[in-house]
TrEMBL record:
Organism: Diploscapter pachys
Keyword set, alphabetical order: NAD, Oxidoreductase, Tricarboxylic acid cycle
Catalytic activity, reaction form: (S)-malate + NAD(+) = oxaloacetate + NADH + H(+)
Protein name per UniProt: Malate dehydrogenase
Molecular function GO terms recorded: L-malate dehydrogenase (NAD+) activity
Coiled-coil region(s): none
UniProt entry tagged with the keyword Cytoplasm: no
The enzyme's E.C. designation: 1.1.1.37
GO biological process: malate metabolic process; tricarboxylic acid cycle
Xref: PROSITE patterns: MDH (PS00068)
Broad EC category: oxidoreductase
Length: 249
């Protein structure tokens, strides 16, 4: 069930997590243990959490992901527009947390190729105020703006992001580069274990396994933003577990 104009992803939670409970059970019954899952339907992180929970025992939780690649691509596009470059020139943006209005799009560790030089994104953008306000809110609200304009959810850009996500999970990330993927937390950056949280990840194309990029320094601004999206995901997880317990499916 998609979100419509004026709805928040939370409004979808009770209806959609029950669908993902039954999907998880079906995966446990019929699929191979090597199956890998990308959840796009919203609330994507929490749906993936529920789907993984009901497929547990058959498919490892690390094979479940939720799509934040669309947000990642939107962040690349905003930085490229601002710096007069192309999306291929911008590397290593990060989407932290939930695929929702609380996500934290972060360019602290990003770089931009300008001509033959590679510079850090803060230098290339040269507008710290925009990075900490306009940029973040544009990326956070992009999905809602598209629904407002189209009266439908994003379509082609979401499909492109799903292809990018699957492409990199299969072929691996390029040396020195990472992508954003919502996957079960291993406790990195203080995020509760098991929460499906968007992190910067590298992927080994040989093993097809992702690894969270560890130990990136976080300033107080980043820590506060990450705390907000973590809290929302914890609340969604608790509401979803309750809805699933109550659902007779
Ligand atoms: N993660 C992202 O970046 C991202 C981007 C775009 C859309 N979305 C989400 O993807 C989802 C789909 O959006 P859409 O625009 O393609 O919607 P849509 O209405 O075009 O498609 C929804 C589909 O779900 C099916 N469906 C309805 N109830 C079902 C049930 N009980 N079990 C199985 N299938 C059921 C419908 O038949 C329909 O085919 C929405 O939740 C939307 O919010 C996420
Ligand atoms: O369907 C939505 O809620 C919006 C979608 O997730 C998007 O980010 O475009």
């Amino acid at each position: 069930m998609p979100r419509r104009e004026g709805m928040e992803r939370k409004d979808l939670l009770a209806a959609n997590v029950k669908i993902f409970k039954s999907q998880g059970k079906a995966l446990a019954e019929f699929s191979k243990p090597t199956t890998k899952v990308i959840v796009v339907g919203n609330p994507a992180n929490t749906n993936a959490f529920i789907c993984a929970k009901y497929a547990a025992g058959k498919i490892p939780a690390t094979n479940f992901s939720a799509m934040t690649r669309l947000d990642h691509n939107r962040a690349l596009a905003q930085v490229a527009l601002k710096t007069g470059t192309t999306i291929g020139d911008v590397k290593n943006v990060i989407i932290w947390g939930n695929h929702s209005g609380t996500q934290f799009p972060d360019v602290k560790h990003a770089t931009v190729n300008k001509g033959s030089n590679t510079v850090d994104a803060y230098t290339a953008i040269n507008d710290a105020n925009w990075i900490q306000s306009g940029f973040i809110s544009t990326v956070q609200k992009r999905g809602a703006v598209i629904i407002e304009k189209r009266k439908l959810s994003s379509a082609m850009s979401a499909a492109k992001a799903a292809c990018d996500h699957i492409h990199d999970w299969h072929f691996g990330t390029k040396p020195g580069e990472w992508v954003s993927m919502a996957i079960p937390s291993d406790g990195s950056y203080g995020i509760p274990k098991g929460l499906i949280f968007s992190f910067p990840v590298t992927i080994d194309g040989a093993t097809k396994e992702w690894k969270i990029v560890k130990d990136l320094p976080l300033d107080d601004f980043a820590k506060e933003k990450i705390q907000i999206t973590t809290k929302e995901l914890e609340e969604e997880r608790d509401d979803a577990l309750k809805a699933c317990d109550e659902a007779n499916i």
